[in-house]
């Protein structure tokens, strides 16, 4: 790997041991990837820098030592200096308001708070969301980033035209300290052209429709770059969010093109550039039905214990929609309704009275985490319902529950009645 003079000085330890360890990690990482050089980045989104489990395992260990081992792969503890790049913390394991509802112990709560305090002191912005683009971190077209979180990566690559691969805890930690990331994958022009043509023959209008389409596409193209042809209506942020999250869950999609909507292709030809489609797929009524049945394959019982809205984290408009469905009504005593959103949006929802509407209905507005990341559910939960294809893909596998997938209205109604009545 070719290094600039500045990068060489980092590797030689002239900018401190923490930066040296970070650069050593990036060089090793880049060489494995086949990257010829690094690229500057001033936009890094990573995980809670230690993670709940590492903090609990290490107990009272020096946090610099924990960071060195788990985030820099350093054989010895080094003193961690402030972050060089603009750095952001993604979704974490704990809601600071409702951590007791999650079932967290005081010890776990204190360890996570300590980890966040450490991150903040080192210049990491505590956004605590899987959708940083909803609360201020909106990279521009062509900007090189280093982001974790598959649903966020596919959104910023495709909708915004920024450039990032799906990074991990270690590579983002190293990028925070150095302002560098290997120049490969979706940082390169040549890798951003389409690979598969998807002819959309079925109308795609609701968020459910976009989740179904995303899940179908991701499963078939895997890590390819799908190009959607035949989209009649311009989708909004929520629909694109659900599409990308679903495609990144069933496959490994990190970028897609909707000619005339996403920023790097006005036409199908422009989306493919010098490439030809390796495969043409058709999405019609049969594919839609099969995908719906696949997403609901774990569900057998109609009694619903938990309805989860907000994966990826809900927008203010989604919270408003849920409020309109529950206002003046009550969640069934045998069920629960949890809505998840970024902390910054929860604050606005409080000001708007939305959070109070949810509380009056017996629901909760939560932030900073989700049941899949935090691995928590109400005690005795056997059946969940969600309007997120991503969440119904992961949560049954992670938490060993049954999962129903449907529209937001169907999900909220199941929380109010305690019974699933949704259908395609």
From TrEMBL:
Q: Coiled-coil region(s) at which residues? A: none
Gene3D superfamilies on file: Aconitase, domain 3
Phosphomevalonate dehydratase large subunit-like domain residues = 1-413
What Pfam family is a match, any one?
A: AcnX
Keyword flag Lyase: yes
Q: Which UniProt keywords apply?
A: Iron, Lyase
Q: By what name is this protein known?
A: Aconitase X
